[in-house]
Design goal:
Blueprint lengths: L1 H13 L3 H14 L1 H10 L7 E5 L5 H7 L5 E6 L2 H10 L1 H6 L2 E5 L12 E7 L8 H11 E12 L1 H5 L12 H10 L2 E8 L4 E8 L2
Parallel strand pairs: 1-2, 1-4, 2-3, 4-5
Antiparallel strand pairs: 5-7, 6-7
Helix pairs in contact: 7-9
């Protein structure tokens, strides 16, 4: 029973759908809101920026950002159910033209080179098929002086959770090396009271 429940939660985290996905998002949005707030704090937004959320889920973080800046925002997610929820949550910003959502896999992002000033992702790296290829794709999308924030739980936090056994584990050193290989300058900062960290990848001109 417990194994089946943990598998269900893990599947909903990686590819949310239906009522189960909405429930998981609702719980997650409450439990890890401090992590969301840390990411928002680390994004140095200006009103002229274009911002991309990879794995945007139900659009909760984009909604937080839209209240703090006049940026243009794009969210992508592999889940049609998540995109539907994101559109509903952010319908005012979508209607105004400030925000749009696409149901796309991150390996097939339909954007031109240098499309975004800021890109971030929260708790998605565990599901990436190829770390180096994804880092190269994100580097392609960023403008000069652009910033990518990869927010994730520490391995100790993942190991303390019953539903994350199938998640890929990375060390800060591995993620730093992958970023350096893609041409980024990299910093790591602890967030969420030490339960998580953000890897900050900057584009050097």
């Amino acid at each position: 029973m417990e194994k089946g429940l943990n598998s269900f939660i893990a599947n909903q985290m990686s590819h949310p759908s239906g009522t189960g996905g909405r429930l998981v998002f609702s719980v997650m949005n409450r439990q890890i809101r401090p992590l969301y707030e840390d990411v928002v704090r680390l994004l140095p937004l200006s009103d002229s920026d274009n911002v991309l959320d990879i794995g945007c889920g139900n659009g909760n973080v984009l909604n937080m950002l839209a209240g703090r800046s006049g940026c243009s925002f794009t969210g992508i997610d592999i889940s049609p159910s998540a995109i539907k929820s994101a559109l509903k949550r952010n319908r005012r910003h979508v209607k105004s033209g400030r925000m749009k959502f696409l149901c796309k896999d991150m390996s097939k992002m339909p954007f031109g080179d240098c499309s975004f000033n800021q890109i971030y992702t929260i708790n998605t790296v565990y599901f990436w098929d190829n770390l180096d290829a994804t880092m190269a794709e994100i580097r392609r999308l960023l403008k000069p002086n652009g910033l990518f924030i990869n927010a994730l739980f520490t391995n100790d936090t993942l190991n303390s959770l019953s539903h994350t056994k199938s998640y890929k584990r990375f060390t800060p050193e591995e993620l730093t090396d992958a970023g350096a290989g893609a041409g980024f300058t990299v910093d790591v900062t602890s967030v969420f009271n030490g339960k998580a960290y953000c890897v900050l990848y900057r584009v050097s001109i």
